[in-house]
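Working notes for the structural subgroup meeting. M.R. asked for a predicted model of this chain before we commit to crystallization trials. I am recording the input and output together here so anyone reviewing the notebook later can reproduce the run.

Input as submitted:
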Amino acid sequence: MDRIIVNADDLGMTPGTNKAIFEGFDKGAITHTSIMANGDYFAEAMEGMADRRGLGLGIHLNLTYGKALIDNSLYCDEKGFFNLGYLALLMRRDEAFLLAVEREFEAQIQRVLEEKKEERTLTHLDSHRHIHLIPHLYPVVVKLAKKYQIGRVRLVNESLIESLLLTKRYNFILNGGIVKYFLLRGFSLWDARHADLYRGRKFYSILYTGVIGADILQKLKDSPQAYEIMVHPGYSEPDREVFFYDRAEKSYRISEDRERELKTVLLVAKKA
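Returned structure, recorded in token form:
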């Protein structure tokens, strides 16, 4: 088992994201990535993966951004684009909806398996905006993980106390990270009772998403604990003219934090 996983989310979303993730892997900083099977730059991402056999590949399951692979009015608008937010997903738990979600998730997994150009085992499942942790969606994801022999499903089991002692930073209070933390931590505790496919690993960076410092990353790497460290590297310049499906996503992707996070993981890799 890889003791430290540095996982870059959102592969396939934009050209700047793809470029940064592949650079991070090529320079020894990123070990795994999660691809959006419905991403507008999915084909470009899969081309890049063909030359990087050592880069662990998982699926970034998605129900909230872009065009669905299976057009279904239960979660799409009339043009086939996802139209449900997080609150709506929390409320929808009827059988027809869950079956439709299972089919969409399976289509996303199958698309990656069909498009990969070499023998490659999918290493993990996670999701855009962590929607797979919603308690009535999590069993669907576990079912598909077992069906396709995918060994790891992300749980947000980050310890608030440990993270505070490690970083001694409190910026998450102002940026909303604490609310997201308690929501996803609660979901993960409930989900783990159903099935824990995280296999003794600790998650890091809900509280400090997008602003991980090099000093903290180094401390995590020096720890004997097995970690998955979530990062969102990107290059803003290639993405400024890209079409985004919502303003918040554009603001996040072209933020200077994306390039800063890439530089952070590259710096720590260089010192190793």
